[in-house]
Amino acid sequence: MNSSFSFPPRPAYARRCIGGLLLALATAAGSEPAALTLEDCLRLAADNHPALTAAAAGVRAANESVGEAKAPYWPRVDLSTGFHRWQERVFLPAGLMIPGRPLPEIVGPLNDWTGGLYSQMTLFDFGERRAGLDAARDRWKGAQADSEATRGDIRLAVQTAFYGLAAAQDLSGVAERNLKRMESHRALAQARHDAGAVPQADVLRVQAEVASAQLQLISARSRVRTAAGQLNTSMGRPAELPVTIAPPAADSLPPIATDIDAAVRQAITSRPELKAEQLQVDAARAVVEGARAARAPKLRADGSYGVNDTTFLPETKVWQVGLSVDLPVFDAGSRAHRVARSKAELAREQATYDTHLLQVRQEVWAAVTELERARDSIAANETNLRASEESLRVERERYQNGAALITDLLDTQTALASAEASLAQARWSCLSARAAYERAVGRP
Length: 444
Description:
This protein is α+β, with helices and mostly antiparallel strands. The protein is about 65% helix and about 10% strand. It has a single domain (about 35-70, about 125-295, about 335-440), classed as Outer membrane efflux proteins (OEP) (Up-down Bundle). The protein is built from nine helices and four strands; from the N terminus they run H-H-H-E-E-H-H-H-H-E-E-H-H. The termini are close together.
């Protein structure tokens, strides 16, 4: 399925408020909610699911980190102003004299008013800033890939829940038909008992089966409500909201080829999770380069300009410009430990990627196997259903003519109900398996 699944332009909070208001108005008016197609459900998930909002926020945060990593390439300018009142003891050299006055021992108290600008810029750092920027960019791209992976997971969850609800509705229909047939068998057994052709035990046996069919129908309807709650949850809505779906025909989608080698190759190149993991490896590698560059000298230019005086509006101008070189000499092994830590983190990220690659291969293998099983089981279940329908027709005629026992008729009816349920489950399971296969190979 090639469904549009992208972030809408309006804020998610506003969309949820509008959707909730419309739902409340529809409920108050007593109108039934419109039946939702699979495309409708996917759009609702894109509009409402909080996981997508969180993923978008993660992308924005990573993008801000890129801007933060670019900042060290620009000069830093600080404005400083202040007031201090101070007094200090003076230690003057021996023999120094001031004519006519004793040597002062204390200077002050004095006022000190200051104000000015200070700027510093790193000119060369052996690639430390570049490594930090590369790491930030890789993390940003990784956040985008993680967002795509989240979108794919939610899409698969919606498809699985949608097909699950459709299957539950079909199974409920199977239970209803089974109950009607049992009631028809009960009427037949009662008529034959009234004619003296069969004992009362036949009627009692069928009545027990009718009660069992009623319990099965109750359970089937309960599973429909549970499946509806799961669909709502997968769309990011409260489970208790009413929901009605308009499922397609169970065999409406054309078959797809399942070449395992081609599927694995496509998954490796297309799965956003693997892209995100590879970008995390690249970011960790950039962090190692940055840690190594931190041990090298740094050349900086700095300058300042301001005023300094003892009055509230200082007039004495002070300034300085120059270059400085920072060379780390001893840091108790801090930089060496940083390099070793970043290398260990790189090894961990690489191992995580390799592990995830194995998982993706296994997911593709399992998805292909399940899809082939589901497709093959449909034909077998269709054959079984036709045989069960014919068997029930024959056994009912035989029982009506006195040539069969009630147990033969009921066993055949049970086999037919099982065949109908198996076929319905197989058809919707095939669509679910197809959705899982498309997710496994990384198709949008």
